[in-house]
Amino acid sequence: MAQSIETLFTKIDAEIVGNSHSLIIDAASIEKALPEEITFAGNEQNLRKLKNCNAGAVIVSHSLKDSFQPEELDTTIIFVEDAQTSFIEILSILRPSRLRTERGISFEAHIHPSAVIGDETNVYPGASVAESVSIGKRCDIHPGVRIGAGCSIGNNVTLHPNVVLYPDVVIGNNVCIHASTTIGADGFGYRLIDGRHQKIPHFGIVRIEDDVEIGANTTVDRAMIGETIIGEGTKLDNQVMVAHNCEIGKHNMFVSQVGLAGSVTSGDYVVLAGHVGIADHVHLGTGCTLGSKAGVHKNIPAGETWIGTPAQPMAIAMRNVMAQRKIPNMRKTMKQLVAQVEKLNEQILAIENQTKNQDESPTSQAAAA
Prior knowledge:
6 helices; 20% helix; LpxD
């Protein structure tokens, strides 16, 4: 439903420059926004795109106010403290979440008689809940979900289609696990005995604490003994691999295709960019950040940023990169120097031969006599 700019920003501290009565029906990116849509510019790069922007309104951070002239643009500008934060608030108004409906337990779901399911929980057709499972209140167990024996699930948990929980997985409150993720599979542990790979049994569990979100097609393996832990508030992207006995701290952020080998531990607020690989038994200090495709083979100190493979502190790695960029010119200079040295050697040899010949001539010998 269309709403005026003034109405949309009733609860947001904003300075509106332009027509506050313009109607907005949706939100879009700064490149694709139409006259009845709103967008945002949170940095200088996006500001430069405003000249070609067709949006009916643009949210801009106060910090950029002196970087352009709003009057020169044919759109309404709304200045706020943080453009992206305000844009998200407006987006939630224009595109409200679908209301959760209480469907109850489907007759087409397979529920073991010993399972305990809390009030207002939905179990959709095709889901399977094994023996001795406990599920809290207001959970959504979508089609194709498989919950193994002895699992414990808290309140307000959403398991999207085809999520698999192996036996004895423990999940806290307010957890969301996206489609086709597997929690609690055996760790990848083998011993080479008499020329054959013998499987190491994994008797531990996986514990996922409160307020965790796990993306699609992610895997968290059970511990060999003890627990694999995903700490409170941690967010795992799609296609992340967490191996056996890892203990992940609170409020970590792991981007897509991160891979952790066995027994990795981390502090709180650790950030791993895409495709980072961590060797086994490494500790990641609280607040550290690892850049994309970093390969980590030793402990990372708290609060530091490391990049590259093998990973190094960012300042050192950047110096190495700058040095590498100079190599082509250095090779060219080296070739020139080598050629000059060879030429000088030829000249020196020629002078030495000339001197030697003069010393051996009859005239030189007679003069010496």
